[in-house]
Design brief:
Helix content: 40-55%
Largest sheet: 5 strands, mixed
Strand order of the largest sheet: 4-3-5-13-6
Number of strands: 13
Structural class: alpha/beta
Number of helices: 10
Strand content: 15-25%
Order of helices and strands: HHHHEEHEHEHEEEEEHEHEEEH
Length: 320
């Protein structure tokens, strides 16, 4: 075993990440072979059970011991018995192989066309009505597809999309990035929301420039709706004077009702007392809603089906 010990010594002396990765690459294909022989303690029977040539199995075991630098088996002819090191190694190998099999079953289940899973992200403002309606309609034809749902603001969802944590996301504005594919699905009118006793509350329509002297409540920087608000105000010739920043559109509506400012918001799911919502005639106050996914990333069948469904809803995504 002198060569084995010198091999292990070389590996341990490097302390290099690449060397560690190389060891795993070398060991991985041989672990199942080792576990099979360890269970039978007989090379011939193990070769028959695993349907591999006996010579291949013997070479795999010899190389595994050489890579590790230890004897895993005590040999008596074709019969083998585990050494103490072999028994220790087997416990970890069986646990690792079981985890690999569990992971394989999980990804196979997630990719199943009928019962697979879709990781789907969407804006907070679409969680009360839009997304439940979409899922209800999709599951009419795909009743067993499962969903992992994530509500967040646009930039955070795109980060999770890039990290592989999401398959698809509904976001606004529609992103324009080389690593993503995005398609516009619909647009949503934004209204200027004012307190019920506000000087403008008797109006039905308004030019945004007429609110230049108002105090605004908005979403925090980084939110798509905040960026749209800033852009629309700039088009109207002013920079909004922001008193409060929040994370939820309905929280902002409550602040408006309390007389703390005005806000540009999408329509509410349920009318909110204490506020009046004015149509903005200029500039054109809308936000585009789109679906995004990673470029050059293969879809599982359930993801492909849901993506096709969303694209079929262009112009009819939002409740009327």
């Amino acid at each position: 075993m002198a060569h084995q010990r010198s091999s292990a010594a070389r590996l341990s002396q490097t302390g290099d990440t690449r060397d560690a990765q190389d060891i795993v690459t070398l060991l991985a294909p041989r672990l199942a072979h080792f576990a099979g022989v360890a269970r039978t303690e007989h090379v011939t029977r193990a070769a028959q059970e695993m349907n591999v040539p006996q010579s291949t199995l013997s070479r795999a075991l010899a190389r595994l011991e050489q890579d590790l630098g230890v004897d895993l088996f005590a040999r008596q002819g074709r019969t083998l018995s585990l050494t103490p090191a072999g028994r220790t190694f087997l416990t970890s190998v069986e646990r690792a192989l079981a985890e690999i099999e569990r992971a394989a079953e999980e990804v196979r289940a997630d990719a199943d066309p009928a019962t697979g899973k879709v990781a789907f992200g969407f804006l907070h403002t679409m969680g009360a009505e839009t997304v439940p309606g979409l899922l209800h309609a999709f599951r009419a034809d795909h009743p067993r597809v499962r969903f992992s749902l994530v509500q967040n603001y646009g930039e955070a969802m795109l980060e999770r999309l890039r990290a592989g944590e999401l398959d698809l996301c509904l976001t606004s504005p529609v992103p324009d990035a080389p690593d993503l594919v995005a398609r516009r699905l619909d647009e949503q009118k934004l209204r200027l929301v004012v307190p019920a006793d506000h000087r403008l509350a008797s109006r039905r329509r308004i030019r945004l420039a007429e609110a230049a002297d108002e105090t605004f409540v908005t979403l925090e920087p980084g939110y798509g709706l905040r960026r749209i608000t800033d852009d629309l105000c700039a088009q109207a010739g002013f920079k909004p004077r922001v008193a409060f920043e929040g994370e939820e559109a309905e929280t902002l509506r409550g602040l408006v009702a309390a007389g703390l400012g005005v806000a540009l918001l999408p329509p509410p799911t349920v009318p909110r007392p204490g506020v009046v919502e004015l149509t903005v005639t200029a500039p054109r106050a809308v936000r585009e809603i789109g679906v995004a996914w990673r470029a050059d990333h293969p879809d599982t069948p359930p993801v492909a089906a849901f993506k096709k469904f969303l694209l079929s809803r262009r112009g009819n995504l939002l409740p009327t």
